[in-house]
């Protein structure tokens, strides 16, 4: 899942990004509304965590533009105000969810994951294919009943492949969904991660390389 965090309180923004990355999400961070509009015009995000009171371009206007563009991106709006009227107003702008500050990080993570599921075709909360069972909420993976310990990027790559339901996923798509914008697009990090993932999942191999196209399960 790829997430954009838009928050002008830099310490909070960076803390949220770090926490979501530990949950195997690819996260970009910006600190004002103008930068947010630039990013959503270039990258495909599953979820935007959007502070409402932003400099340069207000969060309300960022939300309106996402809706106007018809993007499948889901918006989780943040605000320092917990008033019901503010929550209603944010939702009426087109936001998909609303979370007042201060918030528990576990709740933020759960809401981001829920919105991420809504940005794609409906799938069961626990993914199963080719003897693999992947639970995104618990961050658990089992292969034929054996638990497999994965690093965050390995988990993210496997989740993207599982959600493709047998379709081929290109290296570029994996890079876009599992890594943030600071990753060198010419790096071999995808190939190396897939190799490590195959080794950890064990025999027989379940990740198939489709020459010139990508990977599938």
UniProtKB/TrEMBL annotation:
Residues 124-217 form the OmpR/PhoB-type domain. It comes from Streptomyces chitinivorans. Transmembrane segments: none annotated. SUPFAM superfamilies: CheY-like. Residues 2-116 form the Response regulatory domain. The keyword Transmembrane helix does not apply. The keyword Oxidoreductase does not apply. Residues 124-217 bind DNA. Keywords: DNA-binding, Phosphoprotein. The modification 4-aspartylphosphate is found at residue 51. This is Response regulator transcription factor. Pfam families: Response_reg, Trans_reg_C.
């Amino acid at each position: 899942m790829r997430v954009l965090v838009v928050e002008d309180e830099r310490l909070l923004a960076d803390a949220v990004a770090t926490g979501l990355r530990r949950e195997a999400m690819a996260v970009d961070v910006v600190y004002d509304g103008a930068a947010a509009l630039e990013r959503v015009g270039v990258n495909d995000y599953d979820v935007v965590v959007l502070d409402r009171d932003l400099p340069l371009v207000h969060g309300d206007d960022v939300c309106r533009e996402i809706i106007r563009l018809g993007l499948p991106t889901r918006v989780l709006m943040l605000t320092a105000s917990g008033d019901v009227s503010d929550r209603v107003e944010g939702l009426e702008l087109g936001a998909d969810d609303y979370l007042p500050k201060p918030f528990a990080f576990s709740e933020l993570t759960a809401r981001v994951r829920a919105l991420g599921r809504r940005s794609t075709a409906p799938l069961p909360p626990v993914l199963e294919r080719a003897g693999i069972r992947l639970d995104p909420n618990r961050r658990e993976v089992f292969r034929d009943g054996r638990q497999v310990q994965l690093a965050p990027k390995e988990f993210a790559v496997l989740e993207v492949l599982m959600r493709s339901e047998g379709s081929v996923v290109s290296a570029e798509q994996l890079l876009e969904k599992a890594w943030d914008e600071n990753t060198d697009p010419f790096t071999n990090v995808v190939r190396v991660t897939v190799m490590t993932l195959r080794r950890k999942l064990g025999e027989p191999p379940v990740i198939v390389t489709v020459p010139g196209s990508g990977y599938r399960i």
